[in-house]
Amino acid sequence: MAVIKLRCLLLLLPGVLLSAVLDVPAADGVPERSDAPVAERPCLRVWNADPTEPVAPDAWRPIPDAELRPVRLVAPRNGVGSGQVVVQCVGCRVTGVGTSALRSEAGVELDGERVRIRYAVREDGPYCDTLAEAPSEGARVLPIWLIVEVPRDQASGKYGGKLTIRAGEQAFVVPVELEVCAWIAPDPSNNVSHVSLLHSPDTLAARYGVEPWSDGHFALIEKSLALMGQVGNDVLYAPVVRYTHLGNNNGMIRWVEKGNPSPGPAGAGPASPTRGEAGERSPPSPPGGGADISSPPSPLGGEGRGEGVVSSYTPDLSVLDRFLDLYAKHCGPPKVLCLEVWNHRIREGEAPLVTRYDPGTGALAELAAPSCGAAGSAEFWKPMMDAARAAVRGRGWDERCLMIGAAADRWP
User: Fold this and answer.
1) How many CB atoms lie within 10 A of CB 185?
2) Mean pLDDT across the stretch 50-54?
3) Is 363 helix (H, G, I), strand (E, B) or coil?
4) What is the pLDDT of residue 251?
């Protein structure tokens, strides 16, 4: 189940809705008007809400003398429109939500795959502030979002359809009106502003319980990158050292001992061990219990300066290559590709920790690399930088997008 914060969508997906409420009987009969609290009346109540209106999970609306209005969305071609309708459940529950085809007055149809239904749920804070693919179990207030992505070549005009909300054996229909403007919005990748969202693949794997860098993991990564592409993200961070502020246990670039067979594409071959298994050094848990995946061991760097590994290992970019392919698919060429080869918590003289990879077993372990300025540091890091340049050039990107980070107030 992929998620994205609703507050971001409110800035990107404008829609116009008219406010009204419909008091609809549930399967067990029509509620009688009484002096009982609204929350106690057994009914399914549906009302329109403006997309900028935050909805609390315990929100209740009084019964007005008005009919439910259509959900109205306005979007340019190559743009997105959105709107929400809110359902109150008392003595019943929503069992299904679906949309009909959206057709224009001229009979033109908008591809149904461009229409998505999402449910606003509360992750943290007082409001339903996260869009999810499924409603929260037992939710009594359920904001339902309709999100329409309009293709660049879609005919402009007014489109109509229906949003059907099912509760048991009953179905309640909400009209949908979409106005597609003639203006074509530019691709988000052509935005003048820089968008630098921090993507954390390790956090994604932990959230959904998938094996890091497996096919299932990359499927989730692709969903995240697709959302980043919608807002024109053009700055990409790729952790190389372990335990950066991006929440990674391992780097996207791993080092393979010379003489081992070349690794295949990321996601194939033996499973990689999770944090804490053999070959891994697990960061300590924070005070109060629980794991902090971004907190490194103390000290962060390895003992010594890592000079002994210079001639023994070669960089492996199979994970980074697959990641960049997905990024290019959804976001286009980045203006900045930052290789995180440093961490502000590494002290002078400490060896940065990178990831050692055994292609035969899939085992991951830490490897102390030469620190900045130490003997052999250029010989160790230059092959990795050369391979990264080749990966960028091979995709037709300007290699000047490559930067190293992350800069901080500490040495170097």
Assistant:
1) 15
2) 86
3) coil
4) 95
